[in-house]
Amino acid sequence: MRRWLSMSCALLALAGCSQASAPPPDPAAITSPCEFLRDAELEAIGLGPGKLTESAGLDGDPATQLCTFRVEEPWNHSGTYLDSVAVTFLPTTLDVARQALEGVEDRGMPRFSVALDGVLQRAGARLGQATCERLFAARPDRAVQVGFTVERLPRGERVCAAAARLAPVVAQRIPRP
Predict the structure, then answer these.
(1) Quick one: average pLDDT of 73-101?
(2) β-strand pairing of 81-90 with 129-139
(3) DSSP 8-class letter at 74
């Protein structure tokens, strides 16, 4: 019986049928920013596994967790590519996170503004790299900052538009207000 089931699953796969994939993780329910993207999603956009780091919280809040996903083979890219995606869990409200990030980070990044899709966003250069950051509330006590660095950005293309084009799964994962 078990052999018949495995053969029928193989036949279904050959016919183009597959099991439905699991729904994406809910940003409010996950416990680590490294769970924000799944392995298959990372592979699809050319990024490797995440590296988790922690730092002191904003304004005396609990520790801030950061997970950075980096490109595995940058030398394989001839055009524009996503160098990294960083997901940060900020254990505070969206307003406090916004004020703290804008007050602490004066490194070529402007203030956040509301993008067309309703999510807070800012774009600029950080350490010479084109950077787009999006900020949203995953739940009342957790803000999430998603940062993209894009390499070889064509003249005239906006970094946030390039990031959404290169990593649509990340853009889709961000809840809209």
Answers:
(1) 87
(2) unpaired
(3) G
Count CA within 13 A, CB hemisphere, residue 143: 23
3-state secondary structure of 53: strand
Q: Where are the beta strands (DSSP E) in 24-141?
A: 51-55, 64-70, 81-90, 113-114, 120-126, 129-139
Q: What is the pLDDT of residue 63?
A: 80
pLDDT confidence bin for 61, thresholds 50/70/90: low
For residues 73 and 77, what is the distance between their CA atoms, to the nearest angstrom?
A: 8
- Enter the DSSP assignment of 30: -
Q: How far apart are CA 54 and CA 90, in angstroms?
A: 11
In a 13 Å sphere around the CA of 133, the CA atoms on its Cβ side amount to 24
User: In angstroms, how far apart are the furthest CA atoms of the chain?
Assistant: 64
* Cα distance between residue 47 and residue 38, in whole Å: 11
CA-closest candidate to residue 143, choices 64, 54, 56: 64
Strand segments (E) across the chain:
51-55, 64-70, 81-90, 113-114, 120-126, 129-139, 142-151
- Amino acid residing at 15: A
In this structure, which amino acid lies at residue 21?
Answer: S
For 81-96, b/e burial (b = at least 16 CB within 10 A) is bbbbbbbbbbbbbbee
Number of residues in the chain: 177
